């Protein structure tokens, strides 16, 4: 089962809009939020239903089916684990039609013992993310009637691993201390490309995983906002902008971090793509209610009245909405996870006769990344790298 094009575009659209308002170096997953918003929209009414539908990018009447399709398709992707969970107080009666749209094994119970309930939610989080995240990002209170959560964890190994090196760069801010760099060379030139946008050029590098889970690195021109760089990555996936692939690039400094040279050699050699980037480990927490307009949550924050008659006859409102996310990029592979929860309340000169082409792609200053499923182009996680991992030699010198 695959992801419908409309659903993938809707999820990626939310990714682009989230990137546009993101103000800090971070990792985030719209794919973790979207199914929850869809199920909430399915049970909402009035202004809340219209607002959630606008955030989803699909009509509310189609949202639940699209969410089920999305979760089913993601569960079938190799290297990706997903889950949806629902916990309610025993006294909360759910509409049968709405509950029937959730996975059969999703429903648990909130006992009212806040400490015990949080331990149970944390245990679910650890199990569903394989330990990548250890705490459910939800605020429980006496008024919490229901918790609706999703978990997403992806792992992939690179088809071509990198070698660990100390990053060599003169660009601030990464030149101030030794950073853990990654380097590799390939004869496949079309892994890199240059996109032209009204705001400037963006260099895209595709790092392919062994299970069709890939990471695209995105480096924009100096001065381009992180939202515009990541948005360009989404536009590339949707074929909304022209990308010049590596084999068709002209010689010279052609784009951000991108140079094409004619190199002389002592023997015949194939063209090469030499890549330098950095290892990173990002962890972030997001309060989705601070971006309530982005997620269609403005109306449903009002706890003085109910907004979800399709979920329960009891009046319900959103008391908290949070996401915990991590993304780790290393020499051998990549892993990322996101847990999202709604609390529902009342990246020498020899004879050289032969000539070849060498492309150098250097991601040696802050850049963005999109982690995605290769075949559906569904973005599973995204982020912006500003603080790469330090070089191990740096740690050793600090200890001395």
Protein architecture, described:
The protein is α+β, with helices and mostly antiparallel strands. It has a single domain, classed as Antithrombin, subunit I, domain 2 (Antithrombin, Chain I, domain 2, 2-Layer Sandwich), CATH 3.30.497.10. It contains eight helices and 19 strands. The chain has helices at 5-21, 30-43, 46-56, 60-75, 96-99, 114-129, 226-237, 392-399; strands at residues 27-28, 80-89, 107-110, 144-157, 163-166, 180-186, 192-197, 200-207, 213-220, 243-245, 252-255, 258-265, 272-278, 280-287, 317-329, 333-345, 354-362, 367-373, 379-385. Strands 1-19-18-9-8-7-10 form a seven-stranded antiparallel sheet. It has a six-stranded mixed sheet with strand order 3-2-4-16-15-14, sandwiched between helices. It has a six-stranded mixed sheet with strand order 5-6-13-17-12-11, with no helix packed on it. It is elongated. The chain starts with a helix and ends with a helix.
């Amino acid at each position: 089962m695959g992801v419908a094009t409309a659903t993938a575009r809707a999820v990626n659209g939310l990714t682009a809009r989230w990137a546009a308002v993101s103000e800090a170096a971070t990792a985030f997953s719209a794919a973790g939020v979207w199914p929850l918003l869809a199920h909430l929209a399915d049970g909402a009414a009035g202004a809340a239903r219209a607002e959630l539908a606008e955030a989803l990018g699909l009509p509310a009447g189609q949202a639940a089916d699209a969410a089920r399709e999305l979760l089913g398709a993601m569960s079938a992707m190799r290297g990706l684990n997903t889950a949806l969970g629902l916990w309610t107080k025993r006294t909360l009666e759910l509409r049968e039609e709405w509950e029937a749209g959730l996975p059969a094994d999703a429903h648990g119970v909130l006992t009212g013992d806040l400490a015990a309930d949080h331990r149970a939610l944390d245990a679910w989080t650890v199990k569903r993310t394989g330990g990548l995240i250890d705490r459910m990002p939800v605020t429980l209170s006496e008024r919490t009637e229901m918790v609706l959560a999703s978990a997403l964890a992806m792992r992939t190994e690179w088809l071509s691993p990198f070698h660990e090196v100390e990053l060599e760069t003169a660009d601030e801010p990464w030149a101030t201390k030794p950073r853990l760099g990654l380097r590799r060379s390939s004869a496949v030139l079309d892994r890199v490309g240059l996109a032209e946008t009204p705001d400037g050029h963006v260099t895209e590098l595709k790092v392919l995983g062994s299970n069709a889970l890939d990471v695209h690195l995105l480096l924009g021109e100096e001065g381009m906002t992180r939202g515009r760089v990541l948005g360009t990555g989404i536009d590339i996936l949707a074929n909304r902008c022209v990308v010049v692939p590596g084999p068709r690039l002209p010689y010279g400094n052609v784009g951000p971090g991108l140079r094409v040279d004619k190199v002389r050699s002592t023997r015949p050699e194939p063209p090469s793509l030499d890549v330098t980037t950095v290892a990173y480990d990002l962890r972030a927490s997001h309060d989705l209610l601070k971006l309530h307009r982005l997620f269609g949550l403005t109306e449903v924050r009002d706890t003085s009245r109910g907004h979800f008659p399709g979920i329960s006859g009891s009046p319900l409102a959103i008391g908290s909405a949070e996401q915990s996310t991590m993304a780790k990029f290393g020499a051998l592979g990549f892993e990322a996870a996101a847990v999202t929860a709604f609390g529902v309340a009342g990246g020498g000169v020899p004879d050289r006769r032969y000539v070849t082409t060498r492309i150098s792609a250097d991601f040696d200053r802050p850049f963005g990344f999109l982690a995605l499923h290769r075949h559906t182009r569904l973005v599973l996680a995204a982020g912006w790298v500003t603080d790469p991992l330090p070089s191990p030699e740096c740690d050793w010198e600090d200890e001395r």
